[in-house]
Amino acid sequence: MSILRPSSALWKAARRVSVFFLFFPGEAARELRAFLENGGIRCAIFPDSAEALAAIRKALLPVLLLRWPLAAPQETTFLRRLRRMVSWVPVLAMGDPKQSMARIEALESGADFFLPLRNAEEELLAILASLGRPTEPSASTLGSVGLRLDWKRRSLQQGEKEVLLTPSEFAIMSHLLSHAGRFVLAEELAARLPSRRKGGAPSVRLLRVHLHNVREKLRRGAMGIRLRFVQGKGLVVE
């Protein structure tokens, strides 16, 4: 059975999210919206970032679709503002895959995923389904450093303090904390990042971006730990 049929398991999981289009060319947005709504996914197109932000704050599981590259400075400012929100909002950028740096630039600017603007319906559906699929209700406690990873909320907790993480950040912290007390190579961590393309090699450059974001979140959350890098040895949690 084709995964594009509305009865497939992927559609059922994807229907839990709400998809918001912003900074998107009209025709492309309308075509994608029709595809998603045909499968029962809630969608809305916003020409204004303020309206989009208001809708995002009200939605239970919002997902933001952006056209890439962003065309104006205020669009980049909005993306940075979105990344400072307490709750994590998945951002999916769509652009021309022939532009060799487009994927890297989008991910380094705050997007969580990058897809071609055309003919990527199956991969888009798979991503939305992964975001809407219920996670295990149990949480793992990592007593070695007094921290707790909550797999359902995708967060790092310590007492009453909590830091929300993106999927890539969560994968990094999960691996580091499960190997607390030893150095972890950058290549080893990069291999843990969620794959953005089939057969794509782990990107140490992209890992550095995620590590920077994690360090900032740990600092702002006053979690009392730090990630230290030692040349020739790797990364360790202290």
Please describe the biggest sheet, giving its number of strands, its sense, and whether it closes into a barrel: 5 strands, parallel
Strand % is 15-25%
CATH fold group of the largest domain: Rossmann fold
Q: Low-confidence parts lasting 5 or more residues at pLDDT below 50?
A: 135-142
How many runs of DSSP E, i.e. beta strands? 11
CATH class of the largest domain: Alpha Beta
User: Whole-number radius of gyration?
Assistant: 18 Å
| Annotation field: number of helices | 9
* Widest sheet, order of strands: 2-1-3-4-5
Number of domains: 2
Provide a compact summary of the structure:
The chain has helices at residues 9-14, 26-38, 49-58, 73-83, 102-108, 121-132, 167-178, 186-190, 204-220, and strands at residues 18-22, 42-46, 62-67, 91-95, 113-116, 140-142, 147-150, 155-158, 161-164, 227-230, 234-237.
Descriptive notes:
By secondary structure, the chain is α/β, with parallel strands linked by helices. It has 2 domains: 9-132, Rossmann fold (3-Layer(aba) Sandwich); 140-237, Arc Repressor Mutant, subunit A, CATH 1.10.10.10. It is built from 9 helices and 11 strands. The strands form 3 sheets. It has a 5-stranded parallel β-sheet with strand order 2-1-3-4-5, with helices on both faces.
